[in-house]
Structure prediction request, 777 residues.
Amino acid sequence: MAGPINQARVKISKIFNGEPQSYTRFNLDQNNDGESSHVEVKLSGDGEEEMDSAEAGRHHATSTYTQRPLRTYKNICYGALVILIFFLAGYLIGYVTHGKSVASKLPCTTVQPEGPTDEGEMVHPPEPTLDWSDITSMLQQQLSSAAFYQQLGNFAIDEHEAGSPGDEGLGNKVLNIFKSLEMTPWTDEHYVQLQVPSRGNPNKVLFDSEEIGQPTGYLAYSATGTTAGKVIYANFGQMEDLKYLQEVKINLNQSVALIRTGKISLAEKVANAAKFGAAAVLIYPDSRENDVDRSTELYGHVHFGTGDPYTPGFPSFNHTQFPPAKSSGLPGILAQTITADMALKIHKKLGGKAAPENFKGNLRGLAKYNLGGENGLVNVTVNNVQTDTKIHNVFGVIKGFVDPDRYVVIGAQRDSFGKGFAKSTVGTCLLVELAKAITQMKKDGFTPRRSIVFASWSAGDYGTVGATEWLEGYLASLDKKAFTYISLDGAVSGAGAFRASASPLLYSLLKETMNEVIDPTNKVLTLFQKFAGSNFETILEPMKMEDGAYPFLTFSGIPSISFRFVSDGIPSDYKFYGTALDNKENLDIATKGRLGDFCVLAAQVAGQMALRLVHDHLLKLDVTSYTRLIRKHVATIHKRVYELKLASTMSSPLTSQWLTTAVGSYSRAADSLMNDIQNSDLEDKEMCRSINDRIMRVEHNLLSPYVSPRDVPFRHIIFGTGEFTVSALTDHLRDLKENVSGTNADFLRNQFALTTWTIQGCANDLAGDVWALDNEV
Prediction:
């Protein structure tokens, strides 16, 4: 029967396609009659007679093939009849034999990439076949407390400051592990400018010519030199603290601000003090009794930004032509850390007004807090020096089978000013253990659709330098390919609470993950039930500039998340960051002896989020979450516009109509996408890729296109910093109503326009192709 079926198939091909279009057999024959050689192409028509090559050479020496005569209408009819007969016969035979032989279903774990066929056919990637419950179970089986304790011992060293031999040694360890796992590892070199203390010329602090001390701790990127001024106690250095001093007639101009740690970053404390005219800032560790030894030195940086501040907006590769530029986030005033003992000496000498209750700290031996500003001068000398330093980022990748050019990035800081056990060692161990676990899962049958990139960053303690330089180097491609960043920095620093900072696109995924991970101490409660109860909002906090995920979200527009297990109580911050006391012993105490268990939990949270993002057909990113957030901000703007109208402080009326319309456009686009998702065919790879691309662009489209990433790196209109943000627009409305000096009605209108069109542009891209847009703007 095979012969007639083949003949019928050939007839179908010729009816719809004419002559065959692909030629698969070639004969190179030399003409024996002395004529020039020729190539004869034989058409592969199964079951048909072939023309003899020698006969073809004599009759058609200059032709490559002979066209057959056209079929007549009669032949077409015969062909159609033959097709119908054999179709019916084949259907009956298939129906009869189907009940006799049922193919057995292969187990999920045996799915492997198909090899090439003998005929050279295209190899199709294998479809992921494991259920989600199988994947979470496989991940859980690969993670253990014992493995983490062993890895923590392997990576814990006393000195691994950025660019040091210790940092490079740890980087090589990570690289070798990635090599052993066959993760196609690579390294990324950057030549950055770091600031370190001078070896022969120490920093000094004097009070009325009496030396308070020569601290070995320091703040990188401080201005250098010597200055003197009256010392004023400014609490945490928050804006409200400095405004209070202004209200009680204490002038910070050309003073030395004495500030305690906590609440905000060191860089923000210095930036705030500079805005109020301070000449220098002294920062000391302020902790509960017995938390920190009074002689403990404090380290950190005061660049109000991320990355190498001397190559703002572009990467510090070796071939970069460095212009004479520097970040606007570098402070213009001196900044220095001092110990609690040194701070106590200064506090005891302070006079002036008594500090309010909320200014009172935790210094042992201090009975009364005064604000100062009336007696004595503090002299501050900072002799830090800049040094060109080579740093290495280390990468490995687990490639996807369907969309390998789309990837989630999991990263951890590797360096530290001191031991940095909670700051960097734990995160590095989480990184390599997750890489090991998911590599083994892939060997056992897990087939991710998309890729996972594992990144070990250097110079994180100087302001996320390594990660930011990588983002700057590959900015043009990362926003089109990287769809999420998961930070492992500081993931475990306590045992009583859970905190997360994230893009709203990741809220639903985080909540779902916390509802799936079980608390090992209870065996019944999920992480969500234990730490969030019934209110998800209680675990969320704003993403700060010192967060390792911050530049991914606000500079590159990549949905990002960082999370951490912390101590319960207020404050929940780990007190040993930036000190030599950030060691295993203190972290064991903070985690109540269950450090390994919390490492497993942190790995499960990060791992399950990453696996979900690379496993599902469609990205688990909730675009409707931004609808709620943007509407919340716009509601505040509406209120301020109404208040401004009542105040009658503008010469012409202001309306928020077009901003409201843009928010409506985004809402409709998000709802339309959700409808497309519900009605999509998940087996249609092109459709899934198209939908995923629309989802991926949302975060990037919330970066303002109207400012330069070199001048304003954190361009996100919701989470960024600068005059283009929604919060800046809201503040400007308030200031204009109150006739605050420096307000500008024309600039306000410009802010309105740029905010409106940033949101509208995001909505247009989310809606799909330009010919599918349907809005009134």
